[in-house]
Amino acid sequence: MYNKIMVPVDLAHLGALERSLTIAADIARHYDAEICYVSVTANTPGPVAHNPAEYEKKLAEFAEAQHASHGQPTTSKMFVSHDPTADLDDFLVKAVALVGADLVLMATHLPHRVDAIMPSHGDKIAAHTSVSVFLVRPRD
Amino acid sequence: MEKNPQQESAADSPETSEGVPSPDGAVNLIDTDYVIGQDNVTAAPLGISLDIHGKVFAISAIATLFFVILTLALQTEIEPVFNAMRDWLTSNLAWFFILAGNVFVLVCFGLIVSPLGKVRIGGTEAKPDFTYVGWFSMLFAAGMGIGLMFYGVSEPMSHFDTALGGVSMENGVRTDWAPLGGAAGDVAAAARLGMAATIFHWGLHPWAIYAVVALALALFSFNKGLPLTIRSIFYPLLGERVWGWPGHIIDMLAVFATLFGLATSLGIGASQASAGLTYLFGLPSGNVTMVLLILGITSIATISILAGVDKGVKRLSEINMVLAFLLLAFVLFVGPTLVIFTGFFENLMAYVVNLPAFSNPFGREDANFSQGWTAFYWAWWISWSPFVGMFIARVSRGRTVREFLVAVLLVPSLVSVLWMTAFGGTAINQFIGSGFEGVREAALELKLFVMLGELPLTEITSFVGIVLVIVFFITSSDSGSLVIDTITAGGKVDAPKAQRVFWAFIEGGIAIALLLGGGLVALQAMAVSTGLPFTIVLLVGCYAIFKGLMSEPRG
User: Which secondary-structure segment (H or E) carries B464?
Assistant: First the structure.
């Protein structure tokens, strides 16, 4: 059914991603799919890394560690943005085609009225790609 | 452990690489236990997520509100206090500002010729994030765009006027505002002196001020791995203490200077655009027009920052440059072309010849000029430097120090010379050549339009002029909001969108409140007063640049 699952991750907020990472691993095992972990980072120093090269290395290590825990093949892809706050959605939409994903699985928040003016990233990805998008909401 | 055959990093392969080119090469990181964002507060009130540096954000926001209310409530009492503060600073400490300005220029030139100029911002292998055009547009639009519109005609004219008037003494004290010794009665010499004085205020010195802040920030952020916020410059001096209160205070001061500087300029700019609209189209001049202008500018700036640096700020800056270039080209070719072209070199020469006298900090006889103009300008540029410098730093990754300084120091200075020669020179020529008194007599905010009125196609060019004033404001306002947001988020550039919108609205709000309630001049005086502490920040910056560059690998 699915061959390559794209999972957007922010290494600074791994705690909030636990559910989506587990579900991605379960689906990948079920369909024997590969998982590609995608990150968009700023070119300035941040909480995770001093520079993009360091972030890229950490992302690759993260993908390797995920592979070790669930056994499915993993890859990683990092994008550098001048302004991740504004460009995140665009990069993720581009990433779907670039990595050749047929399923996007990502964490999102509970729906809220503010979404009408500032939609969640998940909403935007689903609206702008033709592949299936699985939005994982936090437990209530 | 099972081998994972597919583990690879897709960003290495150029054909799949997207966005900013991946860096890096060798850098010499500073080893600190501080984690960027460790003091931040994250919350999501009403579904709006926030990620802010608790202390810097809260105190800056509350103090800003306090100052605005205080200024509005006690306008008549406050204004003299702030004005007195500014006057005291620019008259008693004029030597300090002028001396510091010279230090910044010398540091920049020193770095251009020294082997340290080879260090690359972002690591030995880093590639530039932006093309020359995009990069240059952004640094120019953020740096001084609006001032060129406001002072392009009026400042050369003022200096020409006072220089022509010559020296006048009263009780042994000079009462005239002429630069240096003036040029009483000598029209040609007065024109040269007036242009040279203007270029002095818009040339190497202001750009050296920006360059020092920008270079220090870029170095400590991209090469040393410290957060992109003003306090990082102090790391070589204060060490780990910059993450505590000394650092908080430096950052808060930067927020004030930026916010008040932008808000007052926004108010002053709105008055120029509104005066222009009235002059051209007979629109009712007054508060309604100005408030609508500020609302419009703030809304477009908000859209721009929501679209981000690449799709918003950069594009607007480029539009801005194209418009400015068209207007400049128009004045060049329709105005007295030959006079402008020969004037360019003459003015440049006059600038170089008079530079030592203009930049002499001690024993000046032209106190009115050196204190009222030069020291005021230096304090004003310096109070803008955290904002412009930080924005320039953010878009300058991948350039070598030498390339950076040439582009931030020399190129904009030459553009300023050309701009001032074209606009100011044309106005002076209108007076000398045909005795046209209009520009001399026009109000400050109208001088540009009166000058354009003497050239053909007035309606079109004046309209472009007004649009430029507005767009220049938008590009200052959007980059300013981004900078304040980054500082109040502890150096994070990926804080939630709501925060940058908040700061853009605050800027517009302050501008409107002060425009209606009065107090723009008072707050401008206060913004200028922040120039003093920042002069010290910049001097520390010079030390930090040398210290930081010495330990960097040279490409």
Answer: helix B458-488
Model confidence at A111, in pLDDT bands (50, 70, 90)? low
CA distance B551 to B549: 5
Exposure class string for B298-312: b at 16+ Cβ within 10 A, else e: bebbbebbbbbbbeb
Q: How far is A81 from chain B (nearest CA, A)?
A: 6
* 365-404 of B, contacting A, C-beta below 8 A: 394-395, 397
B11, B22 Cβ separation under 8 angstroms: yes
Q: Is the ipTM of this complex over 0.90?
A: no
pLDDT score for B357: 94
Please report how many Cα atoms fall inside a 13 Å half-sphere around the Cα of residue A58, on the Cβ side: 18
- For residues B32 and B465, which has the higher predicted lDDT (pLDDT)? B465
Q: Which amino acid is at B440?
A: R
The percentage of residues in chain B with a pLDDT greater than 70, rounded to a whole number, is: 93
Tokens standing for residue B380: 């004003």
Query: Which pairing describes strands A34-42 and A132-136: parallel, antiparallel, or unpaired?
Result: unpaired
Torsion from C-alpha of B414, B342, B447, B385, nearest 10 degrees: 10
* Rounded distance between C-alpha atoms, residue B308 and residue B225, angstroms: 23
φ, ψ of residue B400 in degrees (nearest 5):
-80, 160
Calculated CA dihedral for residues B383, A44, B304, B278, nearest 10 degrees: 20
Residue with tokens 């360019």: B344
* B36 near A CB under 8 A: yes
* B49/B420: higher pLDDT: B420
